[in-house]
Amino acid sequence: MQNNLKIKVCGMRQQENIEALTALGPDYMGFIFYSKSPRFAGGFLTPKIIKQIPESIKKTGVFVNLKNQDILEICKNLSLNTVQLHGKESPEQCRAIKNLGLEVIKAFSLNSMEEIDQIMAYEEVCDYFLFDTPTRKYGGSGKKFDWSLLKALPSEKPFFLSGGIEENDAETLIEDCPVSPFAVDINSKFEIEPGLKNIESIERFIKTIRKQS
Question: What region holds the N-(5'phosphoribosyl) anthranilate isomerase (PRAI) domain (predicted)?
Fold first, then answer.
């Protein structure tokens, strides 16, 4: 397992919650711009709120099957520097966004080892992969991702491990994951309600992970 495992907290939208999380110093903070998500950040965030987050935390917009123009408009307005594409975006779309200087995370929902091969078309057009549990709602289900699928991973691209990660996983995640992730992505298992995180639980998780990695 690599040193300095990165931590991404996704599904943020309330100002006080964002400020409290910022104090914990996660590596990435995610904001969901998918209108069907219960964590939809539209209408909650303002440029002023985002500007209070230091540059050491990468501000990440999560998008699902949105046009490039709309993605770029949101990123520019809120000064986001990372784009997570969580839908059926093509390699060409990933490349176009990456060529504009934005960091790109391409998410894949995997059910079986047979689906692993689909990611290779994206090898050169994104900065990171993210592996999540398949759901109809594009993430945030709380269902555990089958980490054993990563044994068949044909790529050496650094990746985010997502899908139902909870506080108790902090003790064993580093040993249990068959391939070393670049980062872990946490969301629904750390919530009081959709879009409102339990800061105390996240703090314990971060401390445990960073103590080990």
Answer: 8-207
Q: How many angstroms separate the Cα of 98 from the Cα of each of 4, 12, 102, 124, 135?
A: 25, 24, 5, 10, 26
Torsion sign over Cα 167, 170, 171, 175: positive
Rounded alpha-carbon distances, angstroms, from residue 46 to 12, 41, 68, 77, 80: 13, 10, 21, 8, 12
Q: Are 104 and 83 in contact (CB under 8 A)?
A: yes
CATH architecture of the region 6-212: Alpha-Beta Barrel (3.20)
Count of beta carbons in the 10 Å neighbourhood of residue 193: 9
Selecting among 27, 94, 132, 185, the annotated active-site residue is 132
Return the closest-CA partner of residue 213 out of 185, 182, 167, 178: 182
* Alpha-carbon gap, residue 188 to 171, rounded angstroms: 19
Domains of the chain, by residue range, sit at: 6-212
The yes-or-no verdict on residue 52 having pLDDT over 80 is yes
In this prediction, residue 1 has a pLDDT band, given cuts at 50, 70 and 90, of very low
- Give the Cα separation of 6 and 211 in Å (integer): 12
142: alpha, beta or left, given left = phi > 0 and alpha = psi -120 to 50? left
Using an 8 Å Cβ cutoff, are 105 and 127 in contact? Answer: yes
Measured from the Cβ of residue 96, the count of other Cβ atoms closer than 10 Å reads: 17
Is 132 one of the annotated active-site residues of the chain? yes
pTM of the model: 0.94
